[in-house]
User: Fold this.
Amino acid sequence: MAHLKEERTFVIAKPDAVQRGLVGEIIKRFEQVGLKMVATKMTVVTPEHVEQHYTLDPEWRRVTGEKTIEGYRKKGLTPPSEDPLEITAAVLKGLKAYMTSGPIVCMVWEGAHAVKIVRKIVGATEPLSSDMGTIRGDYVLDSYQMADTDKRAVRNLIHASGSVKEAEDEMAHWFKPEEIIDYKLVQEQIVYAPEIDGLLGK
Ligand code: GDP
Ligand code: MG
Assistant:
């Protein structure tokens, strides 16, 4: 089994992140926690590629619909539909328009617990509920209610894989194996090495 420090996750700086000049800020936050960027590219995608991305997990339609319904209920609001699949169909339509509206920056980040650490830094899906200190909490004021009223996807700057399995499927969907680079960072010595030697002169 691979060492935990070799875990990888897939991230997209969505079109709003590019347009708002926040790509550097996003990269900075992953870098400063100690993660290593192992792949990156700017691209413009087709609606088909976006739909495939979101439906790589056959459960995504149901789970995302249920998450939205719960989000409305928690705030004492009535969801736009009681049927999770109906909600996700509308979300997916909005996502295709959103994700193809301009260039995006795709990345793979590597490091210990990369999937969970990146999700923690990114924050909850709905910016209205994401904690301050997270990227979505600090830089976005969007909500499900506002996005659904305007029949569009929530603009939350970033996509980040939700599990190691999702990350593996998404990396294969977005990158060729040779585009993901295996290399060492000198800082890994201080971040991961079981013993730290040679820092001081004799
Ligand atoms: P993520 O993993 O946190 O990005 O969230 P999901 O995988 O559940 O949803 C994918 C994307 O769809 C989100 O990042 C939002 O842009 C959008 N989205 C999700 N749920 C809703 C919703 O209820 N309404 C709207 N309008 N957009 C949503
Ligand atoms: Mg997701």
